Amino acid sequence: MTEITAPKSPVTTAEFADEIREQLKYSQGVTVEQATAADVYVAAAKAVRNHLADAWFTTQADTVNGSTKAVGYLSAEFLMGKQLENALLNAGLTEQFDEAVKSLGFEPKAIVDAEYEPALGNGGLGRLAACFIDSLASLGVPAFGYGIQYRYGIFKQTFDKDGKQVETPDYWLNNEEPWGHIDYNRDQKVSFGGEVVEENGKKVWKPAWSVRAVPVDYLVPGYKSQRVNTLRLWTAKSYDEFDLLAFNKSEYMEAVEPKVKAENISKILYPEDSTKVGKELRLEQQYFFVSASLHDAIRVFYPGQDKPDLTTFPNKITFQLNDTHPVIGIPELMRILIDEYGYDWDTAWGITQKTFNYTCHTLLPEALEVWPASLIGELLPRHLEIIEKINDQFEAELAAKGVDADTAKDMAIYTGDAVRMAYLATYGGSHVNGVAALHSQLLKDITLKNFSDAYPDKFTNVTNGVTPRRFVKLANPRLSDLITEGLGTDKWLSDLEMLEGLVPLAQDDEFVKKFAAVKAANKHAFVGFAKDHYGLDIDENTMFNTMVKRLHEYKRQSLKILAVISKYAAIKNGTVSADDILPRTVFFGAKAAPGYYLAKMTIQLINNVSKVVNNDPDVKGKLAVHMLPNYNIEMAQNLIPATELDEQISQAGKEASGTGNMKFALNGALTVGTLDGANVEIRERVGADNFFLFGMTVEEVEKQYADGYDPAKYYEADPRLKQAIDLVADGTFSNGDRDTYAPLVSDWLTKDWFMTLADFSSYADIQAEIEKLYRDPLEWNRKALLNVANSGFFSSDRSIEDYLERIWHTGPLA
Ligand code: CR6
């Protein structure tokens, strides 16, 4: 990797303080004396943004004028997290900021904390997109992130007195948002509905209504690359402010209807994760941002040209489809090329197929989007015609390849009543990738097997990664300093595999003790964070054991809570002696999709186990459980560095990759996990001795399904499990009420689709091994350090390099 020395236009502390003062005065309209932390945050954000402007313009110019193909990352979600610290780091202004802010009489941390976290994503997929655009900029690759500026991000989570999840809207734009630049002059028109007619032998779409897509540009600064890319998020505006005729008749609600309808499109992020939601509005959102983005790319790369030569389009930009959400882009590009620019079908198809690539992020069949043809026909009639024609062509191609009729039928993109978006993406693009080695293999063997048989060369893998700038440097400054000390350089931040240089230091007891001291300090800091944010009193002399991720049955928070209950019961019964108890604090963080009944009930159970356990004097100092509300990036940045044991316990074959697992390993937690997703690769790299493996393999899971899985058998066989489930059933965690968790208990005993019960015994058994090691702090920390040293592979920089080589075939700007 080329080392480019960073920041342009360095400023002194005094100059930066002046810039903040100016922003306060001329843009916020307050004096330094009047300013609050929130004012200073906005002023500092604008000041740092100004510093990035020149590099942003140069990057844009080089992107358009150069010969390096750009990357367009089409994603319905970008879960960015707070921006200020990251922008300062990448602009090389952190120290100036700290000093400047102090000179103005503020604490730097208070200013950074005043930012409201933008939460335009659900979980892993959205955060991955944010890590990828950070890495693209840091590697100097010209790129655009394209998505939606939702007015409401993922809901805010609180709990009611019964421990149930309560969702409240996340109105993040209620606060001044200094990063996004709204650009009314580069808008796009996006149309819907109506009909297709024939005019002079040509198909002409006569849409019924249109919305105005207005771009909001976010700067994406690279770390030490001097490059600043663009994240362009579209917001929907109405062409008709209101209907004056209706207004004059006092029909006020009717008068604003068109505006409301248009603006609804970018109003809210669907709070679903790995689940299919077939909603009309969701399809509108997808088409809205994809259509605007494709037109925008043509505008950017062929400025001022009425008749651009779009056969060169795939040389200008390659579009990555982040899951199926943007797949409507395939028929949309066909439509643009044929209807708007007059290309013939075959030329248009050649361009389209070269332009797109598809990343699949799931193994759950229900999470692959399938749209009713009637809905597409109503909303996008021309696109449905194009999809039908793509399907005809596909069928002919399969027949020519000798694929039998039954198989071809199974592979249909268009079934007559539905459109399978994953199949459309697989056929309509050049490459398909999964997000971890195991996942990509299972896609080929199971989910997309027929496609892999017919088009083996399309399939590849790119294992996910996370950005070390946010998730090590910013989240864990103490560890970062120690790594820099150990390696004698901070270059590891742009070349994470350099962490391997720490391997020999794992044999140096003094270094391991320093590493242990970092963890202890992070735990101490988290205790303060938890006190401030949640009012909790946490005992830092306990093992910090964390499970944070979306609440989903396949992730098996149930397994963890049942193990906690079983431990609680053992302490209560005196089955374990006081000396044998390893004090633990268990942290959960998880949002459940609002309509996901069993997931919400699991949250309620965790909250009530927490209430009972934490208030029971018999287990005081030995076991505590906390369900932390509203898991988000900020919490991740604080909790992950403080965690000692991380839970990655999904049923084998269900978690496509996971990225939390990578963040924990890089921050020196040991993992207890199954052979699932990227756990497999983490374990391979950190070493089997430094990973707590338990549970069934994919093959064993498949065999159980085939043989007819019976969860009750496991309930009867392991008294620990039986006791835990009985305590849930008998009302111990519901004030004696036996009905509260009856649906959950019944699901466990009769269905248990993700085989929590079958894996319980091996999960409970491995706890002894975990606790034994924890009692030897030097050995524990040695292994934790080896996790850090061997996890450099999981940088999103490496993921991007894999995409460049295997899929995009492009590279950094010259
Ligand atoms: N839920 C996968 O489930 C993966 C991320 C990013 C997910 C998870 O294992 O790490 O994508 N899938 O690749 C979807 O969102 C469909 C996720 O975040």
TrEMBL record:
Modification type N6-(pyridoxal phosphate)lysine: residues: K663
Catalytic reactions on record: [(1->4)-alpha-D-glucosyl](n) + phosphate = [(1->4)-alpha-D-glucosyl](n-1) + alpha-D-glucose 1-phosphate
Keyword Membrane: no
Family annotation (Pfam families): Phosphorylase
GO molecular function: glycogen phosphorylase activity; pyridoxal phosphate binding
Function: Phosphorylase is an important allosteric enzyme in carbohydrate metabolism. Enzymes from different sources differ in their regulatory mechanisms and in their natural substrates. However, all known phosphorylases share catalytic and structural properties.
Name used for this protein in its record: Alpha-1,4 glucan phosphorylase
Classification lineage: Bacteria, Bacillati, Actinomycetota, Actinomycetes, Bifidobacteriales
